[in-house]
Write a structure and sequence with these properties.
single chain; mainly alpha; 21 helices; elongated; coiled coil; FF_domain; repeat
Amino acid sequence: MDSGAPPAVSSPAPASSGVISSEVNGSKALESTIRAPQKENNREKTKEANDNGNFSESSSDSEDDESVPTKEECIIQFKEMLKERGVAPFSKWEKELPKIVFDPRFKAIPSYSARKALFEHYVKTRADEERKEKRAAQKAAVEGFKQLLEEAKEDINEDTDYQSFKKKWGHDPRFESLDRKERQVLLNERVLQLRKAAQEKAYAVRAAAISKFKSMLREQGDITLNTRWSKVKDSLRNDPRYKSVKHEDREALFNEYLSELKAAEQEVARVAKAKHDEEDKLKERERALRKRKEREEQEVERVRLKARRKEAIESYQALLVEIIKDPQASWTESKPKLEKDPQGRAANPHLDQADSEKLFREHVKILYERCAQEFKALLAEVITVEACSRETEDGKTVANSWSTAKQLLKGDPRYSKMARKDRESFWRRYVEDIQRRQKSTLDEGDKARSKGSSDSRRR
């Protein structure tokens, strides 16, 4: 009897395979792979036990049992080992085996088939995990830089540029954790907001000063169309409203005020003349005027109804923009949501049921066309002639395999926005269009070569 075999190694293989297969993916195929024949497992366990030394079986007491990791821990440690050893996504078992075979965590998994099954699952899922880790790191970097901008708000104004900000805050780790382009974009967003606010404030201040300046002119009472600026400005110098306007703007505003006075007088004269003419002709036109007024009232009512209907349509369209954002939304499901609008835009009396449904379908159509346009643009960016020429290990390309093309497309938000049922058909039409263009180019080349050969023979 060999005294060097540890008690933990002699545990039944089927028991451990159940835990391992559950950790991997729970599939029957993997479970059957891990559950190797008992005889094969016993041979491997005996070999590993002989390699561990000549310890007596009596020495493997309860203390050794407590130090042996559980099967679940062995699985976790095995995956950590793969990650630490730099096993790449979709790598091959034979290629990576030399990196891991001498690691103690490799032998902690009892059978060859279980190790390989865990390896296969790891390399298939590692690509998604790396993408998630990268996205999380990018998001954290962006949030950190935004926090840095918030902390540095006292040093940021509408004139701040990237270099001056970098000079003061470039030592901060949150500054270095983000690419320069993204730093500039976030900083420029903050500066543009401040610049816009400063411009709006300056505009409001100037508009208020102009309004007060004209009020001051109105209060004078003796300013007429014939008044000269040179005659009136001396009497206004001590008024704060006079000083609040720039020197070069005062005379221009005075002339503008005179133009307003002239326009007002002309309007008064026009109204007075029209009234006088109407009174002179009132008796002879009374009957005709009455009929005309009736027609005008009808027209006004028609225009009013038209305007109200237009307003109702615009309000309902605004409601659709606020509520309906999914191009796949149905009228039946969306109607109750629209009717809950607190402003009552879906229940306007100038908008009937048929109009509401028609506007809804037009809105959904616009959303769909927008998503389709963006998806076509994504196809043009990803499914290029060069990409079509690259084949996978099984001979597939983005031009003949939707599943291969989907792997390149699905990371883009434009892919998610497009309706699931239409993605493949759009891809297929796009690929067919590329192939037609390539065939046309080849045909033209053949014709040119054929013509050149014919000319050469004639010469």
